[in-house]
Amino acid sequence: MEVQPENHLLEVGSGPGLAIRAAAAQAHRGPVAGIDHSTTMLQQAIRRNRAAVQAGRVDLQLGDAEVLPYADGEFDKAYTVNSLRHWQDPAAGLREMYRVLRPAGRAAVFDQPRSAQSAEHLEGHRREIRAGLEQAGFRALHSEIRHLKPVPCLAILGIK
């Protein structure tokens, strides 16, 4: 995603706060926000990022991908890691990501299945996510399958 120190970042489905911590380290001059629908995950993320939250650099909230509590064009980059499959309405969530991004903002969807899947299944999943991003308005899509262990990971990037 080419994160810069001054970027304003949003993680949709922040889970236990691991990616938020990494994002805040990269965008150390810009605010980083995260939203998750699980109270348990939100509490873990707050504990894991306590210093950054207390310093006002990281904002973590309870909420849903389909109704993001942020202004239009508030972020330079938005991403989701292994959470798209848990959204009630993925198309609405991707539209919300598009809405909160500034012009030319970047979005990324990362998805690593829990178990090994056939190449055909991964390719179908990639096409499905790409189509969702395109329908939300993203362009200049790039996708790849990274062969990580124990299972491959999809990475799909788009520009507003």
Give a short synopsis of this structure.
The chain is of the alpha/beta class and 160 residues long. It is 33% helix and 29% strand. It has helices spanning 18-26, 39-48, 50-54, 90-100, 119-136; strands spanning 9-12, 32-36, 58-62, 75-81, 101-111, 139-146, 153-159.
SSE map:
Elements: E1 9-12, H1 18-26, E2 32-36, H2 39-48, H3 50-54, E3 58-62, E4 75-81, H4 90-100, E5 101-111, H5 119-136, E6 139-146, E7 153-159
List its traits.
globular; Rossmann fold; 5 helices; alpha/beta; 160 residues; seven-stranded mixed sheet
Whole-Å distance between the termini? 13 Å
**Total count of helical runs of at least 4 residues:** 5
What structural class do the secondary elements suggest?
Answer: alpha/beta
CATH class: Alpha Beta
Give an account of the 3D structure.
With 160 residues, the protein is of the alpha/beta class. A seven-stranded mixed β-sheet has the order 3-2-1-4-5-7-6, sandwiched between helices. The protein has a single domain, classed as Vaccinia Virus protein VP39 (Rossmann fold). The model has no long low-confidence stretch (mean pLDDT 93).
